[in-house]
Specification:
The complex is a heterodimer of chains A (119) and B (116). By secondary structure, chain A is an all-beta fold. Chain A has strands at residues 3-5, 10-14, 19-21, 24-26, 33-39, 46-52, 59-61, 64-69, 74-79, 88-95, 97-98, 103-104, 108-109, 113-118. Helix content of chain B is 0%, strand content 52%. Classes of the chains: A mainly beta (119), B mainly beta (116).
Chain lengths: 119, 116
């Protein structure tokens, strides 16, 4: 079975601090996909990043960076120089391929981390 | 804007009633997924449709059903509603890649269901 654990329920930091959100996953699949989604107070789920299991390169997008380590089954998310607009609930998710439709199966979500950036 | 639309945005109804939630996927996306978000259960997968066919079922109650129509829009029907069905219901869509690389799921804005 697949499982995603986000041990940090809530994090509160002051603006401009760096913050890292942890994500640990469990799967027996050799091919899988990892995701981060952001849910701002308005409620929608916004896609941030997808990482394939065979690609362990870290990624940076502006103030956001992601550290994927298969050896520790972790896919952590760091926000550098945080801003008030980063306040949201962040979800890490895991999926496996559905080869017969060249797509993927359901997303398995962690419980989410509520991030509050204080001015 | 993800390109996925859901109607209605809010729905308030009474126990025992039946409601229909509607989802239009992004243009060209053949897969539609439904998820339920509640405070106690978090984000849970309900059901997946691909090109009109049911592909997978998750923690979906027997009182709930869904379908995907030829124009690819999908409807989630919830019947004999209970207080515990109050939640945010999301649909998501994704495109099938001819290159075999999976593309991410894009979510609609959700329908907030309140059962009184």
């Amino acid at each position: 079975a697949q499982k995603v654990t986000q041990a940090q329920t809530e994090i509160s930091v002051v603006e401009k601090e760096d913050v890292t959100l942890d994500c640990v996953y469990e799967t027996r699949d050799t091919t899988y996909y990892l995701f981060w989604y952001k849910q701002p107070p308005s409620g929608e789920l916004v896609f941030l990043i997808r990482r394939n299991s065979f690609d362990e390169q870290n990624e940076i997008s502006g103030r956001y960076s992601w550290n994927f380590q298969k050896s520790t089954s972790s896919f952590n998310f760091t926000i550098t120089a945080s801003q008030v607009v980063d306040s949201a609930v962040y979800f890490c998710a895991l999926s496996r391929p559905d080869l017969s439709i060249q797509g993927a199966q359901k997303l398995v979500f962690g419980q989410g981390t509520r991030l509050t950036i204080n001015p | 804007d993800s390109g996925v639309t859901q109607t209605p945005k809010h729905l308030i109804t009474a126990t025992g009633q039946r409601v229909t939630l509607r989802c239009s996927p992004r243009s060209g996306d053949l897969s539609v997924y439904w998820y339920q978000q509640s405070l106690d259960q978090g984000l849970q997968f309900l059901i997946h449709y691909y090109n009109g066919e049911e592909r997978a079922k998750g923690n979906i109650l027997e009182r709930f059903s869904a379908q995907q129509f030829p124009d690819l829009h999908s409807e989630l029907n919830l019947s004999s509603l209970e207080l515990g069905d109050s939640a945010l219901y999301f649909c998501a869509s994704s495109v099938v890649s001819s290159g075999g690389v999976y593309n991410e799921q894009f979510f609609g804005p959700g329908t907030r269901l309140t059962v009184l």
